[in-house]
């Protein structure tokens, strides 16, 4: 298997892009990634996207995006794994490079959600779940994660204010991210007094609805070294799935797929949690950030809130996490999220993170979740000297 | 939901028909072709009791399309006495009186009416 490098990155701002279509966002992010390295021709285009079929009535997105980029000779496909579509697209791109099936792959994650009404977007998100036995009940996606939050607080005696601190830190980190959707500070009091979406989760602890696209260019490491001075290597790219629906699992407070994908990734990279300098976790809902810290080995079960309270996930802390705002504050254009995470880790490892730079960051980890802990991808990136 | 889909799901929606693995005895809902506990492929249909207890619950205040007229409503995970877990609306109760561990019983209710025919299926209520 060949070693894999990330040679170009690009993204759009996350927000309400009334003036841009789905394909426009994908093209904008892709061109930025291509301009980043000066490479405009690729063997493959993989598009991470979840909702284009429902929200835009558009499938066959791989070819549409590739054609929009003028890449008629390339192979192209849409990769879908709910909110893990982006991470899964990067994962599949890595397989193409590692196996030798392709020498250059453009992975672009894109989602356009703000043309839809809130009810339509809520229904589209619920499509991540089993339509016959979960969505059928009328649950929302937030509702299922609310069950996780309630079970977590009950199991470990953690107070809601302690969970609410996670999004507060994410908002703090987004202040200096020009691509973030929500660049304003919030407080625990603000979270707790914001409207309840599904008990016990409040509005300010749920990722919002937004449009955006992020792209990475992948190549074999041996080629990358000839093109750019400091490529970032993909040290591991893994994925694991669990029992499909949350309610089928015995433990609601930990995600087996996080643990399994992490174990495989750390083994492949020959590293452990202690070797990670910067972390991206899938904090679509506040409690998921805490559970990720525990499942990945950065905190003991039920103790992540203490790590957060001590400043452990802030820049300069034990494990700086979501240093560009995470899903909550950078924004969560669903199919793009997993690719934004990779783009942000690359910025950190290149030393291009500006005020959010984690000094001397050499290795980063990204966790991307599809469904409620159903499909989870893991990526470990490392600086190449 | 299409008429064929509705008809196909009726045994689960109306009678909570699950499956029992003849190899290890595990109960599945919905029925599966392959037992994910032992890998066995010899499973038989089994009607479930509809009696169980509440594992966790939430109140949906912003519903997905098609459920707007019902909000707010309670969604809970119910563990049936057979051991299998089901997601369901919890009805006929004051949400402030809900508690984990409370005993519940199945009830056949209207699920949704989005302009076509009216869909019915299982919900749970306090026993």
Explain what the structure shows.
The complex is a heterodimer of chains A (385) and B (127). With 385 residues, chain A is of the alpha/beta class. Helix content of chain A is 38%, strand content 18%. Chain A has a nine-stranded mixed sheet, sandwiched between helices. Chain A has a two-stranded antiparallel sheet with strand order 5-6. Chain A starts with a strand and ends with a strand. In chain A, 63% of the residues are buried. The mean pLDDT of chain A is 97. In chain B, the strands form two sheets. Chain B has a five-stranded antiparallel sheet with strand order 6-5-4-7-8, covered by helices on one side. In chain B, strands 2-1-3 form a three-stranded antiparallel sheet. The two termini of chain B are 30 Å apart. The model of chain B has no long low-confidence stretch (mean pLDDT 95). Chains A and B meet through helix 5, helix 6 and strand 5 of A and strand 4, strand 5 and strand 6 of B.
Record keyword descriptors for this entry.
heterodimer; A: 385 residues; alpha/beta; nine-stranded mixed sheet; two-stranded antiparallel ribbon; 38% helix; globular; B: 127 residues; mainly beta; five-stranded antiparallel sheet; three-stranded antiparallel sheet; 8 strands
What secondary-structure arrangement, pairings included, does this model have?
The complex is a heterodimer of chains A (385) and B (127).
Chain A: E1 4-11, H1 22-37, E2 44-48, H2 52-55, H3 61-68, E3 75-79, H4 85-99, E4 105-111, H5 118-126, H6 141-156, H7 160-174, H8 188-193, E5 196-198, E6 201-202, E7 212-220, H9 221-227, E8 232-241, H10 256-269, E9 278-280, H11 286-295, H12 304-309, H13 326-330, H14 334-350, E10 363-370, E11 375-383
Parallel strand pairs in A: 2-3, 2-4, 9-10
Antiparallel strand pairs in A: 1-7, 1-8, 4-7, 5-6, 8-11, 10-11
Helix pairs in contact in A: 4-14, 7-11
Chain B: H1 3-15, E1 17-21, E2 27-28, E3 43-47, E4 51-60, E5 73-80, E6 85-90, E7 103-112, E8 119-126
């Amino acid at each position: 298997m060949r070693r894999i490098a990330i040679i170009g990155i690009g993204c759009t701002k996350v927000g309400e892009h009334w003036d841009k279509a789905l394909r426009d966002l994908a093209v904008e992010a892709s061109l930025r990634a291509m301009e980043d390295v000066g490479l405009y021709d690729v063997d493959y285009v993989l598009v991470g996207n979840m909702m284009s079929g429902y929200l835009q009535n558009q499938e066959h997105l791989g070819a549409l995006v590739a054609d929009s980029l003028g890449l008629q000779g390339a192979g192209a496909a849409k990769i879908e794994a709910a909110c893990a579509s982006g991470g899964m697209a990067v994962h599949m791109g890595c397989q193409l490079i590692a196996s030798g099936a392709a020498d250059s792959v453009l992975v672009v994650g894109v989602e356009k959600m703000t043309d839809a009404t809130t009810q339509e977007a809520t229904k589209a998100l619920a499509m991540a779940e089993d339509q016959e036995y979960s969505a059928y009940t009328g649950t929302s996606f937030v509702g299922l994660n609310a069950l996780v939050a309630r079970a977590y607080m009950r199991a470990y005696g953690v107070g809601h204010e302690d969970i609410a601190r996670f999004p507060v830190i994410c908002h703090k980190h987004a202040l200096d991210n020009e691509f973030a959707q929500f660049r304003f500070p919030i407080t625990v009091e603000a979270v707790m007094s914001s409207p309840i979406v599904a008990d016990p989760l409040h509005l300010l602890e749920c990722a919002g609805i937004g449009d955006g696209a992020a792209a990475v260019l992948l190549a074999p490491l041996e080629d990358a070294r000839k093109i750019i001075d400091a490529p970032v290597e993909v040290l591991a790219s893994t994925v694991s799935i669990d029992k499909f629906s949350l309610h089928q699992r015995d433990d609601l407070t930990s995600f087996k797929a996080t643990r399994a994908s992490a174990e495989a990734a750390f083994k492949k990279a020959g590293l452990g949690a202690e070797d990670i300098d910067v972390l991206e976790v899938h904090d679509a809902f506040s409690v998921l950030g805490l559970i990720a810290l525990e499942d990945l080995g950065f905190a003991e079960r039920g103790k992540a809130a203490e790590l957060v309270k001590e400043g452990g996930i802030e820049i300069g802390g034990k494990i700086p996490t979501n240093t560009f705002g995470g899903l909550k504050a950078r924004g969560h254009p669903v199919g793009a999220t997993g690719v934004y995470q990779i783009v942000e880790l690359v910025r950190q490892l290149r030393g291009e993170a500006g005020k959010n730079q984690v000094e001397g960051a050499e290795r980063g980890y990204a966790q991307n979740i599809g469904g409620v802990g159903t499909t989870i991808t893991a990526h470990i990136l490392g600086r190449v000297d | 939901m299409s008429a064929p889909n509705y008809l196909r799901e009726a045994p689960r929606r109306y009678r909570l028909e699950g499956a029992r693995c003849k190899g290890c005895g595990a109960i599945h809902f919905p029925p599966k072709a392959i037992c994910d506990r032992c890998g066995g492929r010899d499973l038989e249909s089994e009607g479930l009791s509809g009696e169980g207890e509440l594992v966790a619950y939430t109140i949906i205040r912003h519903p997905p399309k098609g459920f707007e007229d019902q909000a707010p409503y309670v969604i809970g995970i119910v563990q049936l006495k057979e051991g299998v877990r089901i997601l369901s609306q919890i009805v006929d109760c004051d949400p402030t009186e809900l508690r984990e561990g409370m005993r519940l019983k199945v009830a056949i209710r209207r699920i949704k009416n989005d302009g076509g025919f009216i869909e019915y299926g299982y919900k749970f209520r306090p026993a």
